[in-house]
Amino acid sequence: MSRGSIVEEIGARAEREIAVLVGKCAAAEAEIVTTYFGKPRPRESRIVYMKHQTGRELSRVFQLGNRVAAKLPGLGTTTDRLDFQEDVQKLLDETIHFNLSFDILAWLLGEEPSIAKLRDYDIFDPNPEAPFNRENAKLAKLYRELRSELASETAPWVSLVLDEGLLEGGGCGYFYTASRLDGGEFETRVARMMKVVVKDEVRHGPEQLAKLRDMPLTEEDLERLKGLMRRHAEARVRFRNEEFSYVLGEERLREIIEEGKIEPLYVWQLA
To answer: pTM for the whole thing?
Structure first.
């Protein structure tokens, strides 16, 4: 068998096997959302959820705004113009998401929230003392650990497991499910926002699965990739459950995380 055939075979299998992991993470987040919105929730719980959502979108605006600003001086020399365009487009996407979320939070509060306080729910440097924010802090710690572990790794698959890789948006099960909500004014507003978010986040995250097809992988690479994805998915699911006021109990979380007792949700095939 030629080297090209081996690469193709491993790449196709990697795409299929990693898709299952992403799909199960998406399904877990979808179950959390379905459970949360399955009955009325107190206003304070809704506010905590929307602070999380708005703060996370805001942190992306800061992250990408800084990236665009840093790349701009090198446009035409050290900065590829198409890569720059991609970053600018993503910054626009995340700014729109932030504004949509901010408007819902302001509606819930009856006033505009403090930008400074929203930074408590930052993706990369959250305040663990903020309400329902401990798992967010653990997720941020995992991001730092992954960057450290992979700092000297030059393989192309590395970008797929870091912060903006395949699990950006957690497989998008949350966004997809929330985009289909109906009910009262709150649900209507959330669904309207998520119809915008899901289209962008699928492109940012799970649609990158196709990159695995032609990626030069070894069996060791694939096993390592799957292990890293599982660690990331577990932290994401626990964070998402906290964001939605711990609607799933520990027993159900263990079933999902440790035993895989959930059917994958392939949002990128639906959205």
So the answer is: 0.91
